[in-house]
Specification:
single chain; alpha/beta; Hemocyanin, N-terminal domain; Rossmann fold; 4 domains; 7-stranded mixed sheet; 5-stranded parallel sheet; 23 helices; 10% strand
Length: 539
């Protein structure tokens, strides 16, 4: 098996163990005879046993703990279970369950996973990276835990997010788990309840801010890219001002992206593209309104403006198609409380509240990225249904408990006419005797394929064109049957095929832009080459 590890130590190695699946010959060769029950299991029978035990658990957080323990014991079996049962497992290892897991992270902690950097490590981060056991890291997901999903500042408990995201990189796009590294920039927390929790495992101080914060992030990025020259850095769950500041600080010099800004934008744009097939409207003619004006919402707006320009609109015409409402009402020129990322969308228009803005702007598509549940109330959905024969509603906030409305509400309040998508999963709903399948606008449809493209092409940077290409590629995968069922996204069971398609198309675009080490001769067999890179969990 390519290692001198034998006996009990081999059984305890999560990357190499096969547990009861070692053959009789392997048991003799590797010093395992007597250490394993008699039967030689198959991967399929082990999976059946895992699922039987998983389904005995009484709630989702216990299922999460069980799956993470499996991850710690037998990585290949864990990833096989995820890949083969993605519909059942993804909501347990990521949204919505990961939200509760992050809240309780310090209390359900079993075994260290990932890499932690604190202010006390300043000046030593590059040396610390030599402690990481893998040399060929290709994808880092990093957070500082300040804006975890819609749950706010969870400090070091936010490590559950990078761990979950990287499990999806492996499950959805076949990035080898040895090439994945979750990182927590543990710069403190302003959540006093966490700091006072005796079981909290993080840096128990108020958050580092200002220049000191930026200096620590600068050192992290420099150290990571020095240690792992081909690495892609994905920024995740940073507070909006920091999310934009860090993306703008590094995007031109480092292979990186922000999933909350760019991944969410691409998956949302793909859903809007798909919706036009049901509404029979031209994309370039749409008026789109956002409730929320943070990094996710404005990131979607920025990519949609870019997409509208690609359809022939001027930059000004494109931005005029996009309207934002925040807690103070419609974002318009003259407001003195706007962040820099909001200013391009501050149009000349009278101030209005949310319902008034709906009446005046009459949007074709409504997108929620607020983290505030219930904000798409009955009056809002009925107004959208009054304006549109087929109202298009995206309630993107995660986890499910933070969604702007539920699928049932969107259908009920629109007389069954809404096209509904959400960030977290909702079960199918019977509407007028027909089952409607709410589409899940999950970033897992985008970021794994983007990462696979970057890895395969040895990309230099990820310009906006890459995310526009990924959105087109995802929309292409939405079938007529999906549309007929009311879904604007493919079934999760297709996600590895989707990720491969996105990776191929994105890699081609990166080649066209001169952002890769690919040569022209590499393009002919590109799909086969990228597919050959995809880790297939098995023994």
């Amino acid at each position: 098996m390519g290692s001198s590890t034998r006996g009990r130590e081999l059984l305890k190695d999560p990357a190499r163990t096969k547990s009861t699946a070692f053959t009789r010959e392997e048991r003799d060769e590797l010093g395992l005879r007597g250490l394993i029950p008699y039967a030689v299991s198959t991967l399929e029978s082990q999976t059946e046993r895992v699922l039987e035990n998983l389904r005995r658990k009484e709630n989702d957080i216990e299922k999460y703990i069980f799956l993470m323990s499996l991850h710690d014991r037998n990585e290949r079996l864990f990833h096989h279970v995820v890949v083969e049962n993605i519909d059942e497992i993804l909501p347990l290892i990521y949204t919505p369950t990961v939200g509760q897991a992050c809240r309780e992270f310090a209390h359900i902690f079993r075994r260290p996973r990932g890499f932690y950097i604190t202010p006390e490590d300043k000046g030593r981060i590059r040396a610390m990276f030599d402690n990481w056991p893998e040399e060929d890291v290709r994808v880092i997901v990093v957070t500082d835990g300040q804006r975890v999903l819609g749950l706010g500042d969870l400090g070091a408990n936010g490590m559950g997010i990078p761990i979950g995201k990287l499990a999806l990189y492996t499950a959805c796009a076949g990035i080898h788990p040895r090439q994945c590294m979750p990182i927590m920039l543990d710069v403190g927390t302003n959540n006093a309840a966490l700091r006072e929790d005796p079981l909290y495992l993080g840096y128990p101080h108020e958050r580092l801010a200002g220049e000191a914060y930026l200096e620590l992030v600068d050192e992290f990025v420099a150290a990571a890219t020095d240690k792992f020259p081909d690495v892609l850095i994905q920024f995740e769950d940073f507070l909006t001002p920091n999310a934009y500041a860090l993306l703008n600080r590094f995007r031109d010099d480092v292979l990186c992206f922000n999933d909350d800004i760019q991944g969410t934008a691409a998956v949302s744009l793909a859903g809007v593209y798909a919706s036009t097939r049901a509404t029979q409207k031209n994309f370039k003619d749409l008026r789109i309104m956002f409730l929320g004006a943070g990094s996710a919402a404005t990131g979607i707006g920025d990519l949609m403006a870019y997409a509208l320009e690609a359809e022939g609109l001027t930059a000004e015409e494109a931005r005029r198609r996009l309207w934002f409402v925040d807690i103070s009402g419609l974002i318009v020129a003259g407001r003195d409380d706007l962040a820099p990322h909001n200013l391009p969308y501050a149009h000349d228009h009278p101030q209005a509240g949310f319902l008034g803005a709906l009446e005046e702007i009459r949007p074709d598509v409504l997108i929620g990225a607020t983290g505030a549940p219930g904000t798409f109330n009955e009056a809002v959905i009925k107004k959208m249904a009054e304006i549109n024969e087929t109202p298009v509603i995206f309630a993107l906030s995660n986890p499910t408990s933070r969604a702007e409305c539920t699928a049932e509400q969107a259908y009920a309040w629109s007389q069954g006419r809404a096209l509904f998508s959400s960030g977290s999963p909702f079960s199918p709903v019977v509407v007028n005797g027909q089952a409607r399948r709410p589409g899940q606008g999950n970033n897992a449809y985008i970021f794994p394929g983007i990462g696979l493209a970057a890895l395969a092409a040895r990309a230099k940077h990820l310009p906006e064109e890459a995310f526009l290409t990924a959105a087109h590629a995802l929309a292409h995968f939405v079938s007529d049957q999906d549309i007929a069922e009311g879904a604007l996204y493919p079934r999760l069971s297709q996600i590895r095929r989707v990720s491969l398609h996105i990776a191929v198309e994105t890699a081609r675009k990166l080649y066209e832009l001169g952002e890769t080490e690919l040569g022209e001769d590499d393009l002919d067999g590109l799909e086969a080459y990228i597919e050959s890179l995809m880790f297939k969990p098995g023994y």
